[in-house]
Amino acid sequence: MKLSLNFRWVLSRVTCVLAFLTLTGVAQAAMFEDDEARRAILDLRQRLEQTNKMLSEENTQLRQSLINLQSQIETLRNDVSQTRGDQERLVRDVSEIQLRQKDVVAGVDHRFRQIKKKKISVDGREFLAEPAEKREYEAAMEIFRKGDFVSAQSALIQFLQRYGRSGYGPSALFWLGNAQYANKSNKESLANFQQMLNLAPGHARAPEALLAISNLQVELKDAKGARKTLEELIKAHPASDAANTARDRIARLR
User: Fold this and answer.
1) 177, 162, 169: which is closest to 199 by C-alpha?
2) Looking at domain 130-253, which CATH architecture does it have?
């Protein structure tokens, strides 16, 4: 009976020791796991700090790169603007040079034509004309004298278009009016006779032009206008042959 009690007591002590050892192992294991966790957290924190530091450095470098790039872009933009300005100035300079060149060429050409011009006398009027100008007028008049009034009309129109300020102008208009009268272009003929008188009212052929205008007015059924033109002719050129013809026609108009 005593042995049984002793055995139970020993067994109880052994059980307590085993329980104590078990608890001690668990505690030590927990402590070991806590240390590992701390070390892992510290390691993770250190890595995170290193990563943040690297990112911060890379961000700083990226910002600096962007600033440098922006500076380069601005410099390039300024260079492009300056180049564009240089190009525009160059274009203006070239345009001005071309204009001056044209002026010089035109001036030389004008002086050369003036040198070539010769004094001409036509219908009592003296003026300077270029050889080509004189040649074309005489060629048109040669066609007119041959009675080819259609061709003469074309030649005189071309002459007036080419030499608008020619001293031949009033005479060319007079003969153009006659050619158109022959071609039954009455309105055009009337307009050219009137233009001739506007340019040179004292022209030697002015009386004939007035007489021709009165004839055209009669054909255009403007008797009142024709009478007024004849009266103007007699008043402006009383001693002319055309004035004598005008007096006879006024009598017939009555």
Assistant:
1) 169
2) Alpha Horseshoe (1.25)
